[in-house]
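Fold this sequence, please.
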Amino acid sequence: MTHSVPCRLKRDLIIASSDRGEFLGSTQTEIIVLAIFCIIVTLFLIGLFIQRVRNSRDQSILRKSEEQYLRALEISTDGIWDWNILSDTVFYSNRFREILGFSLEEFPDEMNSFRSRLHPEDVDATMTAIKRHLKDRVPFHIEFRMLTKSGSYLWFSARGQAVWNHTGDAVRMSGWIQDITERKKAELNLNEALSEIKQLKEKLEAERAYLQEEIKLEYNYENIIGQSNEINYVLYKIEQIAATDTTVLILGETGTGKELVARAVHSLSQRKDRALVKINCATLTSTLIESELFGHEKGSFTGAHTRQLGRFEIANGATLFLDEIGELPLDLQPKLLRVIQDGEFERLGSSRTIKVDVRVIAATNRYLEEEVRKGRFREDLWYRLNVFPITVPPLRERTKDISLLVDYFVKIISKRLGKTIESIPSTVMNVLQNYHWPGNIRELENVLERAVINSSGPKLHLVDELKKPNKDISKTSRTLEDVEREYIVLVLDQTQWKVSGKNSASEILGLDRSTLRARMRKLGIEKS
């Protein structure tokens, strides 16, 4: 009994101690879990705090970036644009509208605001460039013109870059425009200057080629020879009109020296530093003479392999001599009238109007007033040409000048042929002075050349049989055409109707073979 009580007490203490240990162990676990939870909450709160701080800082940075962007937009000289392709709306910067002079209401955030103000010539190219960039992703850079509020057009250079989504579709495109109007004007001025230089070069080359042909001409008087009242009156008329830009019509028979008068007018004019450009209207067909006068574009007719300047362009700023104007085809006369009257024309095969400043001197051996009555010459063109007529007298009306002309021609012909002619017998001079000279000065020169060739000594020996007409020609009823026809037939008979070549009719008459054939057709001369 005595031993049982202490043993039970001991057992109870052991049991109580065991329960307390379990209790203490459970409490410690809960404390640890709670501590961990508190730590997690604390870290979460700290994270939230840090995130808020970061967000606040990012927002501050973003605001600063936006402010800087807006300031950049305000001070930028370029116009900024941002196109939302999905909504088809466009953001245009204030500067964009300011350059064009429009307000927001006048230039809303729509693609059509831009498209509708493009220059009509630039719409297709600009929209095509945008489509190529969106589809093929080629760099976008283009120049175009846009209409401003004032109604004028400005030149712009535009660059842009699109953004594509994960499926490859373009969703956005942004860029800027820069006003390049001044640069473009400079480029256009430069191009115009280069074009003018090119045209001037072509003109100078054409003029040089023309002058080289002129140098080859054998028929070229240096001075007007004579002292008669008739020729002095011609010189007086030349001095009267030379300093002006008035159109001159020189009238006279074949071979009287009408071209020499034209050269004298030009040499005394303010245009004398430029070459006298000439064309014979009787030597070419209608198509060719139009091409020669007004030029042609490449491919404008068969054989037109290159562009060619016409005589009016070559003579711009100078003088154009239209010889045998009475032979100009009727269908070309309105075009000639226009360029004389308005100073403008178009090349064959071109619609571009060319402006020129050309003084026109025309010459003819025909009675244009009679041609007008017969419907072969335009009356309005005749009035334009006949502003200041100068009539060159035939050689038979200026017999006082024949001796001077003979001395002059014999001297220059002898020098050219290497001959020495020291004297001209009075008998020879009398024959020359008494001859009718239907071919005028040109015929005289040809007769003297044959005489020099056939003169073996120092004296001039005349080989042509020059007969004095039986009747006073001034009292005959024959027309100039009758006389001309008779003389041409006479020369043709003497040469057995040899028109061209050595000792031919054209050589004796001093005419180009084409001119002679044209006169034969005009006068109805045919070999019977």
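The CA atoms of residues 278 and 321 lie 4 Å apart. Confidence is low (pLDDT under 50) at residues 215-222, 470-475.
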